[in-house]
Amino acid sequence: MSNSALTAFASRDDLARYGSNGLILFALQMNFGIEDIHSVAASALTDGPDDKSCDLVYVDRATSCIVLAQGYFADIPKASAKASKASDLNAAVSWLLNGKLEEMPDALRSAAMEVRQALEEDRISSVELWYVHNCPESDNATREVEQAASTAKHLIDSHYSPDSITSIVAREIGRDKLENWYRRTEVPIIVTDEFRVPVIDGFAERTDKWTSFCTSVPGAWLRQIWLEHETDLLSPNVRDYLGLVRSEKNINFGIKKSAREDASQFWIYNNGLTIVVNEIEIPEDLGLGLTELVVRGLGIVNGAQTTGTLGTLSDSEASALPDLRVMVRFVKCQDPDVLRDIVRYNNTQNKIEAADFRSNDAVQDRLRAEFDSIPEAEYRGGRRGGVRDAIERKKNLIANNGAAQALAAFHGRPNLAYNDTRLVWTDDAIYAQLFSDRTTARHIVLCHSLLRSIEEAKQEIQSTPEAGRTDMQRAAMDYFRRRGSLQVLCAAISASIESIVGFAIPDRFGVRFSDNCSPRLAAERWSSIVQACLPFAPNLKTACDRDLQNSEKVRDALAMFAQFIAATRLSNQTLFDSFADNVQYVGTPVTNSH
């Protein structure tokens, strides 16, 4: 039987370079709606054969989530994926959370340090263990992933602050789960059954684009439809019901406790649900006693955790449900654009992103207009596409966070670029520093293409077999295995820009390519500069310690790197001058022969 998700993955030629890890990245992109998956891959993938059975370590401080993933890809279809590969996650968790750092390979050591620091700082609320493959799911593999989750919980309880972790989730992500996630990107409603909802009263609101009916429904009805359809009900929520952790800070545990112990007050304690439907028939005898609301098709937009928690109550726990009612807003909308926005703005698992707050900013309006004239480039300026856009690969998109990250790194803030890009959008002072009247689309192209060229340089070395790497490539790869190394190297090359181009640049916001080139061509131009700078990259290692958070070490490392580049300008003069012929400065007037 055909599988739309795997067919879509097979068409993603840009993911082929990652081998079996490409499927992990595809799943990560669907689950988190990541626009620029290659930037994530550059830091999150652990390369090399000695990765201690952990192929990806993704730390997302914006969503307070860590994903540890192991992948498997069967070239010939199989009935199930290797359970032994799933069991490897147990070892990976042990290494990452409790292993001796000095015994780890460089890439994993850097990942482990980042994970542990994020946990120590209480920056993480959710830890997810993934086994991603292209086979049918199996009980054996699922049990192994669940065992890894149990190990993670034990280690977190023993070494960190367990109360801050609201969920530890085990996921076997095989053919069916991938297909389910992919279908959710196509249509928000995948359960198309007819439902008869017991109601007493309610009211309707209508426009020419939608009809909504607000009412109260019995908790028992929600539990029943969960037992019949489970997470298919959550089709507008790409991220499923997150499960329970026994903690007062865990919202799902609190919902269950309230349902058991104070059912009559549940309605006033809970925010209620928003449900999108294909059809709705509002009863005419409202307010005259118990009647039925008829809906066809059902997708829970907001309230996934409430529904999942009530649905997983045991029979004894569910005894209080006759007294429990939940506020629900049913919405029918046939306009696809409005429906998309209903899902986006009501979905608690798709909270408003930091960049959304700047989408109508005058600077972003201007930048979007400027990007219209740049060939083979798209920039949304704080606005977002959907998950569908992300997984269908917008080849020419300069993602919001990608632009912010590149600007922060190029302008000497690699710590901000790697650890806290969200602050660029939420902190007024930081935003004003990076996105001002001096920031132009062509300058963003220059910054973003440098970071992309560095990512490609790392990928090129990774694709070279270990035995075939030169001493310089080995040293560079040793550097690239450190988290934040790409952003630090970007900052270091920027700090050396005057030595590279051979003329004064009083304000780095004024530097750009002299012609209105595409981001792709811009990255190609940077390539020779990146290659010339790579031999000096190992000297930046100290800047990457503790996730770039020692500002003095970062500053000193960048200054030393700039001295090395200045000292080698004469030997690289032809290469540097060739690059400089394509660069101009348009800020404060200076003597500029290029």
- Residue share in helices? 40-55%
Largest sheet: 7 strands, mixed
> Which consecutive residue ranges, at least 5 long each, have pLDDT under 50?
245-249, 589-594
Structural class estimated from helices and strands: alpha/beta
The oligomeric status of these chains comes to: single chain
- Cα shape: globular
Q: End-to-end distance, in Å? A: 60 Å
Quick check: average pLDDT? 88
Number of helices: 25
Q: Measured on Cα atoms, how large is the radius of gyration?
A: 26 Å
What is the total tally of β strands? 15
**Strand percentage:** 15-25%
Summarize the entry for a quick read:
By secondary structure, the chain is an alpha/beta fold.
List keywords for this structure.
25 helices, 594 residues, disordered C terminus
Description:
The chain is globular. The C terminus is likely disordered. The N and C termini lie far apart (60 Å). 45% of the residues lie in helices and 15% in strands. With 594 residues, it is α/β, with parallel strands linked by helices. The strands form four sheets. Strands 5, 6, 7, 8, 9, 10 and 11 form a seven-stranded mixed sheet that branches. Helix 4 runs parallel beside helix 6 and helix 15 crosses helix 19. Strand 1 and strand 2 form a beta hairpin.
